[in-house]
Amino acid sequence: MFNKGKDAGSSHPAEPPETPLTTSKRTMSKSSTAPSILSADIVINGTVTAEGEIQLDGQIEGDVKAGALIVGEKASVKGEVIADSVTVRGRVLGSVRGRQVQLASTARIEGDITHSALSVESGAFFEGHCRHTSDPLNPAADDTARPTSPTSGLGVSRPSTSSGYKPNDSSSSSSSTGSPLETSGSSSS
Q: DSSP state, 174?
């Protein structure tokens, strides 16, 4: 490595010996790269595609396809999101497809989610349909997906409008409205 006695007039330039450090850099760059960071001042109109991880802090108006996607708290996507792993802390207006989908407490999604695994933190907002499937990245898998009922914010149940229940109706206590709040017993006062 430090050979002062070598022939200085050699026509072949000395190649640096391959060290374990250079070898590990080469293999590391192929298997795991640093995420592509799209900062807060970036606005993209069009499709974004990456094999690796994208960390979005800006705005994208178009579809995003990546190996992994992190949507930051101030970030927004208006389009379809497709990735193996999707973490949403910001806003998505469009459908989300991912093997692992995580909605942080600051997330706001208006669109359908197709997933293999879904986790939702308290406070996250989701309006749309949620479908579980073994292969969410394959659009043909939608035919075998199990749909769940639409939601309007998490943790909020919608009252049934077909039950006939009227909260301020006290006109007749003996009528049968089919309301789930009725009791089977009767009491006389």
A: S
Please give the full DSSP string across 83-130, using - where no structure is assigned: EEEEEESSEEES-EEEEEEEE-TT-EEES-EEEEEEEE-TT-EEEE-E
> Rounded to whole angstroms, how far apart are CA atoms 173 and 179?
12
Query: What CA–CA distance (Å, rounded) separates 140 from 15?
Result: 52
Whether the model pTM is above 0.70? no
Which residues in 9-36 are b (16+ Cβ under 10 Å) and which e? eeeeeeeeeeeeeeeeeeeeeeeeeebe
For the chain, percent helix, then strand, then coil, each to nearest 5? 10, 35, 55
CA torsion angle 131 137 138 140 (round to 10): 20
Report percent pLDDT > 70 for the chain: 57
Note the pLDDT tens digit of each residue in 33-44.
889 999 999 999
